[in-house]
Write a structure and sequence with these properties.
Blueprint lengths: L1 E2 L1 H7 L4 H10 L5 E2 L4 E4 L4 H19 L13
Length: 76
């Protein structure tokens, strides 16, 4: 589904000026219909899936206890 710059900015929670800059830089792929840029919203699906996976992996890492090191000795 194609969205305008404004609709895309709302969908990905990013300022319109930044979305426009990314379109001009080629970081966000778009089609220009003569009046406005149209952005295929499916190009963000993989990004958001990977972002969720990374968040999940970070949560696992944060909740994993630090193992006790067997080489540490109390020298007191």
């Amino acid at each position: 589904m194609y969205k305008t710059i404004e609709e895309t900015a709302i969908a990905i929670n990013m300022p319109q000026s930044q979305v426009m800059r990314y379109v001009i830089e080629g970081r966000i792929h778009s089609v220009h219909d003569g009046e406005q840029f149209l952005i295929n919203s499916q190009q963000f699906d993989t990004y958001f899936e990977q972002l969720e996976q990374i968040k999940h992996e970070i949560d696992i890492w944060k909740n994993t206890p630090i193992p006790e090191d067997i080489d540490i000795k109390d020298e007191d």
